[in-house]
Amino acid sequence: MIKVGIMGGTFDPIHYGHLLAAETARETCGLDEVWFIPSFIPPLKDNEPGAEGHERLEMVYRAIDFQPYFRALDIELERGGTSYTIDTAEALVEHHPERSFSFIIGSDRINDLPGWHRVAELAELVSFIGVERPGAPIEKSKLPAALSDRLQIAEMPLIGLSSTDIRKRRAEGKSIRFMVPEKVYSFIQRNGLYES
Ligand SMILES: Nc1ncnc2c1ncn2[C@@H]1O[C@H](COP(=O)(O)OP(=O)(O)OP(=O)(O)O)[C@@H](O)[C@H]1O
Ligand SMILES: O=C(O)c1ccc[n+]([C@@H]2O[C@H](COP(=O)([O-])O)[C@@H](O)[C@H]2O)c1
């Protein structure tokens, strides 16, 4: 079986926290590949979107350029509607029977995992790799056994970056350089993304 990590997110924009989470999961769990999947409409978020789907996808492509084991998929953008992970997992498992899938997930999302759409079925199709984010300690013991049994923790240095903060900094005219890869930075600058 080829082991694939799924890095799902809004990526509005993608930043070094996402990339380090993917790389840490890859190394810790011996993944062969990590697939980045930008969501169309993220299920549990109510903040205003910043960039269009095609722009978020383009930034992901730019961020993972030249990394042989990273790929980007437009499956959720193409599907449209609310991007439930179970729908994505069902499609991936059906189309890639030679691969096993683990969903990489930050600790802020781990804590709301029990509320995900059809999560019991999701946990049968994929396992989870958790990475910690500042301010959101991983509380594995608070998860139901069906989920915690499927969750492996990958230790990474805490990275206090968030897309929300990056958008806010742009709106305030502050620098976001070195928070995102240079090619993402130049795309944001050139297209005037996240300006107030
Ligand atoms: N700094 C980080 N360290 C570890 N994981 C992260 C980090 N930032 C995001 N993630 C994880 O990456 C996935 C996708 O995150 P997402 O695209 O929503 O980024 P975000 O920075 O949380 O965005 P926003 O601030 O807009 O909510 C989630 O599982 C999230 O927990
Ligand atoms: O399927 C769900 O119910 C669900 C609920 C919350 C988040 N997710 C997925 O988790 C990933 C990270 O979510 P977010 O909101 O931090 O971008 C992204 O791929 C979402 O589609 C999925």
UniProtKB/TrEMBL annotation:
Domain of life: Bacteria
Record-linked HAMAP family: NaMN_adenylyltr
Catalyzed reactions per annotation: nicotinate beta-D-ribonucleotide + ATP + H(+) = deamido-NAD(+) + diphosphate
Enzyme Commission (EC) number: 2.7.7.18
Example GO BP: NAD+ biosynthetic process
PANTHER family: NICOTINATE-NUCLEOTIDE ADENYLYLTRANSFERASE-RELATED, PHOSPHOPANTETHEINE ADENYLYLTRANSFERASE
Protein task: Catalyzes the reversible adenylation of nicotinate mononucleotide (NaMN) to nicotinic acid adenine dinucleotide (NaAD).
Pathway(s): Cofactor biosynthesis; NAD(+) biosynthesis; deamido-NAD(+) from nicotinate D-ribonucleotide: step 1/1
Family: Belongs to the NadD family.
Gene transcribed to yield this protein: nadD
Keyword annotations of the record: ATP-binding, NAD, Nucleotide-binding, Nucleotidyltransferase, Pyridine nucleotide biosynthesis, Transferase
GO molecular function, one term: nicotinate-nucleotide adenylyltransferase activity
NCBIfam families: cyt_tran_rel (TIGR00125), nicotinate (nicotinamide) nucleotide adenylyltransferase (TIGR00482), PRK00071.1-3 (NF000840)
Protein name, as recorded: Probable nicotinate-nucleotide adenylyltransferase
CDD domains in UniProt: NMNAT
